[in-house]
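Cation-transporting P-type ATPase C-terminal domain-containing protein: structure, please.
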Amino acid sequence: LSSIFFKYETFESLQLHKTKDELTKINQTGQCIYYVALCIMQLFNLLTTRTRYASFFSHNPFYGKGQNLWILLSMLLSIGTCILITQVPWSQKIFKTEQVPLIYVLPALAFGTGLFLLDELRKLYIRRNPKCLLERIAW
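Here you go.
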């Protein structure tokens, strides 16, 4: 791994026993994995940071008093854009992208779920202990 850091597109000087086309495909796949992970984390961040104190379950964007269907629409558009850019063959040729294997999507889902749960626990602690240090340093 240390031999490829800061090489970017100049793989010719490396001795990796792979053709230039294979290295280009690996690079494009890695960039697509990063893009999809970034979009997934963006969705979880959107749901997590909507409110400072209220739980997602008491103030969610899908129904009830905190309903905001624009959030649902934006989430669907973001997912649709990810699928369009990384899965549709004609857009793969245009943007020079590759398909993202599911095994590389799952860690982003796990980290996003972890972020969501930790922030829900933070909100619960702040609601039960107002004026605590965590509340003062949170926002």
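Notes: Residues 126 and 132 are 7 Å apart (CA to CA).
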